[in-house]
Structure formats: C-alpha cells, structure tokens
Amino acid sequence: MKRFALTVAAALMAMPVWAVEIGDDGLHKEPFFHDTFKDMREDLAEANAEGKRLVLFFEQRGCIYCKKMHEEVFSDPDLNAFIDENFFAVQLNLHGDTEVIDFDGEALSEKDMARKWRVMFTPNIMFMPEEVPEGLSAAEAAVVVMPGAFGKGTTNDMFTWVLEKRYELDNGEDFQRYHARRISERANGSTE
C-alpha cells in the first residue's frame, strides 16, 4: 500500500502544472479563444469594438505541434494574458464542418475554407488587419501568417510585432530582423 501511495504521489508530481483543456472536437482550448458564429466580418467588428486585433487559429485533432504550442508556449501565463488582452482569437478546425463566412461573403465549411485560404498544416495563425477591403478573402487580407509551431520567444515576438503594426513601418526591420534584435536583447537582459 505504501509503495502504491508513493507511486501515485510521484505520478502527480510529474504532471504538468498547466492542464490543457481538450474540447469535444479534439482541439485544445485556451481562455483567449472566442466562441463565435465564425462570420469573419462580425468577428472583425467585435474585435475592433473591444480594441483588439482579430487572429485566426487553424488547428486539428491529434496535431502534435498544436499540443506542443498549447503545453509549452500558451501555458506561459504572461503570454496567455498578453494574447487575451490584445487579440480576439477565433479557433478553426482544419477538418471541421462548421460554416465559416469569409470577408468576401463566401460561406464554406471550415475544411473547405482552409483549402480556399491555402491552409495545409497546423497550427496556422492568421493575423487580420483592423479593416478588410470589400471583396478580399481572409487569406488575401492577412497582414501575416504564422505557419507551424514556434517557441515562446518567437510567438511572443510575432504577436508583439503585429500589435505594434511593425509590418506597416518602412524602417527596414521586417519580422526576421525584429525577432533577431529581440533575441539579442533578451540574451543581454535589455528587453523593453
């Protein structure tokens, strides 16, 4: 009995502190995800009304890279709070059947919208501008797409780069240069 109790105690101590919730659709759920009707114009309007940026997360059931992002990146309380405070995040299922209405008015299932927007891998994070011109799709309007799983530093830098609208600046510092500078600053302990 004593051995069993020690085994249970050791197992509990080995469990990760951050428990990632899995929804009925098999996708990881974060507190910063908004459950919407997936009408992109409505979601953009709601994001703007809240003073946030619209960001779309494509994921799929069983995605080991999505799991890695949720367990190792979004588990950071500061990053999670930063995203929640500044972004209106909508999760989409790469193989889902829920209807999505694109900015151009076309209504398709999540899986067909993924094909239209050329989303092939997960996770895939699409950052939207505050205004989308009439007739453009989300893929055409996105200010940047973050395809794949990245570490905390890269993810934080991408969200910050978008929030600061650095993609609009003509200062020669694209994301790669911005990220390299931020890595150097973190290494030197001189982050902003």
TrEMBL record:
<protein>
    <submittedName>
        <fullName>Thioredoxin family protein</fullName>
    </submittedName>
</protein>
<dbReference type="InterPro" id="IPR041737">
    <property type="entry name" value="SoxW"/>
</dbReference>
<dbReference type="InterPro" id="IPR036249">
    <property type="entry name" value="Thioredoxin-like_sf"/>
</dbReference>
<dbReference type="Pfam" id="PF13098">
    <property type="entry name" value="Thioredoxin_2"/>
</dbReference>
<keyword id="KW-0732">Signal</keyword>
<dbReference type="InterPro" id="IPR012336">
    <property type="entry name" value="Thioredoxin-like_fold"/>
</dbReference>
<feature type="domain" description="Thioredoxin-like fold">
    <location>
        <begin position="48"/>
        <end position="131"/>
    </location>
</feature>
<feature type="signal peptide">
    <location>
        <begin position="1"/>
        <end position="19"/>
    </location>
</feature>
